């Protein structure tokens, strides 16, 4: 959530930054300030009556000792009135706090100054492009046809077992998945990230802490009887390891990596863009997470981007880096880079990674702080896909098909044990 102190002292700046998302930022910020003013007014009334109650309660004993029984009885009567008023104010305060909390929970993060304004992907900025798009042999096929041809991926078996969007990997396809996971984890560990193997289900507090609730509730699978959610990304459980924590400065930075399956309902997705592995409900992903001092978070974002670039270059995949506009970013993000790889048979770019900084938006919800002298400050959180496997597999298969089979990049040979899928 955005910090109230920021909204109070930087109202115009907050409106300007939020407006980059193409929303009525002034109305949203002013409503937050109105609700905050109402809450503070009720709080002041409550505190004033409570102070009066405490004063009168102390005076009653003095009046009784002085034999001023009539005055003492009048004071007792006043305490009864005050207690009733305090209870009414307490109920109003609870309602006012909930209204403010709910409104702040719905407010998106304020984009950083360098984020371009815009409403959709059309307004994103291409930062850089790397690698040459490969030429393909005659009769080249998209990955979903290659998957069937080489007995690697079976979308129809997933439909039989579960439903559309749940692929089954077999043979060399399953080994390629496992090889990529190990490769990504090893690269992250070598870069200083500590591996974590978290649960695949989280409670509502965890989903709220990283911003999936209430914003993305409809996109998550919900085990309603237990009140648990299947994770859409390892970011959720890994970042929540530090929920309600007060860190010492020397604990920062914290760099963590984890592999998990990810589950996303992707409600409303349809058409050619969801063929094969382009958009699935379950996929594997290696996620990197950073908890940083605010002074280093911007630098950390660029370090994470460089790490992801290194992975894509090792896999010999043509890619491009996008800076997302305000309207295309997730509501929790303050700044996001997307990395897209070229899928040659489809002739299109596929997003394989989002690397984001959330500044204090998540840490405010998580109550994740660090000691700064005598004060406690909110830490900054960041995360990035390093990498999401489904579309990486799609691009590897499509880009590396030859008349003699599918070539495997050299960086993966120690992990796959083969250099070609035949």
Could you report the average pLDDT, rounded to the nearest whole number?
95
Helices, by number, come to 13
Give the low-confidence spans.
none
Which structural class should the secondary elements be placed in? alpha+beta
Largest sheet composition: 8 strands, mixed
What does this entry look like structurally?
- With 422 residues, the protein is an alpha+beta fold.
- It has helices at residues 4-9, 11-18, 25-65, 69-106, 143-149, 155-161, 172-190, 204-209, 235-240, 297-314, 361-366, 389-399, 413-416; strands at residues 125-130, 153-154, 168-169, 194-195, 201-203, 222-223, 228-230, 246-247, 254-263, 282-292, 319-323, 335-343, 348-357, 369-372, 375-378, 380-388, 401-402, 405-407, 420-421.
- Helix content is 42%, strand content 22%.
- It has an 8-stranded mixed beta sheet with strand order 1-11-12-13-16-10-9-4. Strands 5-7-6 form a 3-stranded antiparallel beta sheet.
- The mean pLDDT is 95.
